[in-house]
Amino acid sequence: MSFRYEIRLSGAGGQGLILVGKIIAEAAAIYDxxxxxxxxxxxxxxxxxxxxxxxxxxDGDIDYPKATDIDLLLAMTQEAADKYAGEVKSGGIIVADxxxxxxxxxxxxxxxxxxxxxxxxxxxxxxITANLVALGMIxxxxxxxxxxxxxxxxxxxxxRGTEEVNIQAFKYGQDxxx
Amino acid sequence: MKAxxxxxQGNQAVAEGAIDAGCRFFAGYPIxxxxxxxxxxxxxxxxxxxxxxxxxxxxxxxxxxIGASLGGMKSMTATSGPGFSLKQENIGFxxxxxxxxVIVNVMRGGPSTGLPTMPSQADVMQARWGTHGDHPIxxxxxxxxxxxxxxxxxxxxxSEEYRVPVILLLDEIVGHxxxxxxxxxxxxxxxxxxxxxxxxxxxxxxxxxxxxLVPPMANFGEGYRYHVTGLVHDETGFPTNVTEExxxxxxxxxxxxxxxxxxxxQFEETLTEDAKIGVVAYGSTARSARSALLxxxxxxxxxxxxxxxxxxxxxxxxxxxxxxQVSHIVVxxxxxxxxxxxxxxxxxxxxxxxxxxRISGEPIHPDEILAAIKEYW
Lengths: 178, 377
Description:
The complex is a heterodimer of chains A (178) and B (377).
Chain A: E1 4-12, H1 17-31, E2 35-42, E3 50-58, E4 70-75, H2 78-84, E5 88-97, E6 109-114, H3 116-124, H4 130-142, H5 147-157, H6 163-176
Parallel strand pairs in A: 1-4, 4-5, 5-6
Antiparallel strand pairs in A: 1-3, 2-3
Chain B: E1 4-9, H1 10-21, E2 23-28, H2 35-47, E3 51-54, H3 58-70, E4 74-79, H4 81-97, E5 101-106, H5 124-129, E6 138-140, H6 145-162, E7 165-170, H7 172-176, E8 178-183, H8 243-255, H9 261-264, E9 267-270, E10 277-282, H10 283-298, E11 303-308, E12 310-312, H11 316-325, E13 328-333, H12 338-347, E14 352-357, H13 366-375
Parallel strand pairs in B: 2-3, 2-4, 4-5, 5-7, 6-7, 10-11, 10-13, 13-14
Antiparallel strand pairs in B: 1-8, 6-12, 9-11
């Protein structure tokens, strides 16, 4: 059985979860030379509504590109936390934003419920970088992608001119789980 | 030029495949989940000397690609279910007038505007019979990002070689999933261009075919003039009501693909050699199925799959043969059994067809297919 790591990024449309999924997948597949897929599901709305992005990282072929047994769940809303915690595997990890997730899920997994959006707002000075703060936490907690690869992927994927602020947000995220 | 490795989604791979196949004209009207094809080509086509047009609606877009193709441009449009419905009249026109065009339908659930953002395989039959009247059509269904590129190149080649509309059917997962792909260098591709007339313009009869059954096609603007109509026409292209002429043209039109089926029909077999229980699947559903059958093999269950890359014409002969070998054929689909019906027809009772259907917008989980395989093992 080849190595397979499943990440689900869930929250609301507009929180940048699909971008984070693309960064993780690109870091793993292009810069770390593993295999990865990123898929998404979202509603017809441009903003708001439930949004979900999934990344599968493997050293073999990836047939089914959706998460079936989640290793790491990011929940950026209470609704997402409630809906998906049950799909996290035993011994898995949940990263949640305490600004939105007031009652963190309980179960056979490690929960890191921390003020992600608040850090983005107060330390980075840009609430919109909350997704990159979450990425920093995911990077640190999952241990499946190298830091250098994530930073390369951030530089390749975020809008030009915002690289440094996004990398800063990513680093605040890493520090949050130290 | 060298091979290129990217993280890319299926829709983007379709756009890249089109460019590398020589497509230089796109007309369309954006619609989820196909919009990235138009978005991407609006940037890429001008870079390679092509033209991108956003039209007022899908019908006009289909008309525009037919016109561009008559003028000699390899042309494509992309849409989803409701837009595909609108295009049907002009798809029939392309069939009747034998104009090469490529139509991408990234499917959504229907009817009507249905489920814009969720995966579905609801247009398998619409792709075959959406336009009225007996007509030839080729429909290809990629199962992943690299294959979306490859089949787009082939779609252009087939449309040029056989002068038929070719439809690429993607589901939302194949259209939107990002995968690591290595694309070939464009100069490594085999590219087929339409056969042109060898006679001078005054001797050109646009609908006279040699033994290939595919008439040479003159591009407008190169000195040849001829009449293009959706009415049944004779060898000159003008309408005819003469029974013998009608019969000759329509029978040629409707049988011209038959002799090329070996080249057109493509499928991939996984562990079919010793299979006692079969799976027939296509698109993203085949990925769930492959995962399920590999797990079945871990439990010493001899399951094997035929994954359709060409849906129409349907690989009836191979499925019939497969049905003689296996006891059951599991057919998972994100519709209510559009291909299962065809598999049943091909199997003619030699194997029992087991349907797994879903139209709620969620993909079919590998566990569900594994459960079916085990149940009938």
